[in-house]
Amino acid sequence: MIRSDLVLRLAAQNSHLRERDCEAVVDAIIGRISDALVAGDRVEIRGFGSFAVKEQPVRQGHNPRIGARIVVPAKTVLAFKAGKEMRDRLNPEVDLR
Question: How is the chain split into domains, by residue range?
Answer without folding.
Answer: 1-41, 42-97
